[in-house]
Task: structure prediction
Amino acid sequence: MFQRLERDLTQAREYAVLRGSVRTEHPTDLPILVLVYTGAVGREHLVDYFVMAGPGRYYFLVPAGTYRLAAFLDVNRDFTYQPGMDPSALLSAGEPVRLLGATTRDDLDIEVRDSSREHIPFAFSSADGEGNGEGSRSDLRFVGAVTRMDDPRFSDDNARRGLWQPVEFVRQVGAGVYFLEPYDPKKIPVLFVHGALGHPGNFAAVVAALDRGRFQPWLAYYPTAPRLDTTAMALDRWMEQLYVRYRYRRLAVVAHSMGGLVVRSFINRVVAARDGRAEGLCLFFSVSTPWDGSELAQHAVDLAPVVAPSWYDMAPRSPFLRSLLEPELPPSLPFDLLYSYGGNSRLMYSEPNDGSVAVASQLFPRARSRARTVRGFKESHTSILGNVDLAAQLNEELATLAAE
Result:
């Protein structure tokens, strides 16, 4: 396992980060699409794209290489570039950006002007959400993909792959936000975010109890080895794509275990973006989240021959955890904190726990003080997701939202 993790982390270090901001000449609420592409002049092809709800920050994670960047204002909101209609701009007149592995360029700002005469040198259309073009690597092709709850990708084996082979997971399994039905504007989306070594199938009982006449489940799926702020950044990217496409008015979020930390970081990013999405957050429902970290993660950091990056963030008193709860939650966002105490792992803990996480960590005062509701369940860290009372409480909260 550790050999596979080391091999995958070595591959990950061959990637680089492209980051910057897009500005517009005038304030706008039109979508902005940023494209990263490569290839010789006249033979350009898309590598990835980023969808923005308005001017702001973008980022790409790409293999070491040479790239160009462009952005356009999507005037008719069709996720298609139309020369002459959609104002566009090339970064530094299309000059290439050369990147080595494990490097970051964060000064790649682009300004789109209404009078710009710059044109993107290839056709781009993404109305169906999939990255078009030879060589496309976009993970957005799985955002909004419709599947079933028993999708074979949602398996324990693939969850383990997400920890021990995260790069392989992204390439072969597919990270993103999956739907169980086509988007319905009459229903409130409920985003489910799993924890470490987890997958969307962990929520099968909760989803089965959901009132599907009023709510639509959205299932986040991601490898659990990367740093938690990296995962939150990816979740933000996926959800911004869905917001731009559907302009959903409300969003409830249910997170288990480490997923609660990812979601809290995601919420911090949404609030900071000020692009309209924060106002739509209507419920944060965290289950068995280690708000003060996990001693298991600390032991792994101390003793494992190869360390998954997420373990650093999960270790008690990590820089990630120390800063996570500093921003206030939006006043309009109810936060329900549910914890489990039915485990008995004496190997790692001398205090009450749920078999994986200490109760004290789940009830960390800084998290607890921000919660509207705090409720315990005599369940293990994983069995809590099958508890009928938990599903009933979620349904009660959601029913209140639907009635508003």
